[in-house]
Predict the 3D structure of the following.
Amino acid sequence: MAAYISRLHHISLHVSNVDKFASDLVSRFKFVLFAARLGERTRQLAFRKGSAVFVVNERPNPGPGGLNEDLRVISDRPAAHTQRIHAGKPHQDGGLRCLYDVSPYYPVDTACNVCFEVEDVERSFKALHHLGCDFLVPPTTIRDHRGLLTYSVVQSIVGNVCHTLIDRSKYEGGFLPGFDVIGKDYSLQEEEEEEEEGEGACPVTHFDHITYACPRKTTHQVMRWYERLFGFQRFFIDSNEDVDEGYVLNQEGIGLRLTAMEYWKCSRAGLTLPSAHKKEADCKFVIAESLPEQGRNQVDTFLEQHRGPGIQHIGLYTKDIVSTAQTMAEAGVRFFSPPPAYYTEVGKQQEIQEAGHNPQMLAQHGILLDTDLHRDPSAQTGCGENTRYLLQVFTKPLFTEDTFFLELIERRGASGFGEGNIRALWRSVQAYMENEEKAALKTVKSAQP
Ligand SMILES: O=C(O)C(=O)Cc1ccc(O)cc1
Ligand SMILES: [Fe+2]
């Protein structure tokens, strides 16, 4: 039996410069710092925008003692007002350093934990353990004055990605025990918050999808792992997509295999979990694999610079991509722009206008538009109201390495991923990578005597 997920709770990142990253999330991406856990040697900060929550953890620097430095901090005590009870043998890190996560030494900044709410952590642990899963933290209960919460951390099959499983049904606080909620307590403000979500210039409401960069020929294994252990189901990106091959783009210099999946929806089976959020949309998981024919590319670059598979990007759903991109760009977010010809290609201007957008505005921010022609034949008539489309824009990498980035996505009836957008993204990233390589070569040459 698999462990069924009721919702995605948060995504955590491990970065070496927490101050810089936190300041970018707030001032540029307009997230709000709403909870913090300040330990003796580590900081964990939680940021939210709608129901999209990032927990930013301080990544330990290896220091002169290398890995041992990380092991020395095992003696860290959890904050005085929280109490921890291990239901099993603790992992060597035991999560002491990082609550609701583990902090193994990782050589680069990384987004690596997708935390899910489940109904029963102990039962999920037993089921997953029985199916051969590796657990980094066994079921562990944390209490504070607002109640208690049980969690466990499981290693995934994708590189350094872990999943923290939590059951917050017995917790009434605003976030997680051990964290101090800053400002208003969101658990008490739900209605007000829902009203607020649609307002403002940056109406990001939730995580739309998480894209993994994986080595060649591993997609099937990854899919099977999530299907078997968490009851994920295949999501077909395109109606012509081959069941085994996935969605393959292998023309004009692009070599990409995409396969998507989503977690089991209780609503489909006519069931509702008590903890499941009423109106919340689900987050899809996309597996990206490069194809050998087309040379060096963004997936291989990720694998190399991230030193292994992992989360390549996260799509943030927004109700208004133009105002969100504009606000973020003014605040200093750097977006990829497709070649200018993208907006003047035959039919593109008309496609954009028919969707009710201004081609200049989209061009100004690098926003891509894809009409969902494959899924809805009526869209081919070009009659505005039936046209389902999708708008996307991709940020430049957020860390020092060319690894993790964010995406803004606005869906107008289109639930997949646009082929035209993927091509345009691929090209703009290729051009960026080539420029970076040229710049690096120049630096090397000028440094030579
Ligand atoms: O289109 C999207 O948003 C995707 O998530 C698909 C995708 C995945 C990996 C890439 O390197 C480029 C595009
Ligand atoms: Fe994406």
About this structure: The domain at 5-60+98-181 is CATH 3.10.180.10 (2,3-Dihydroxybiphenyl 1,2-Dioxygenase; domain 1).
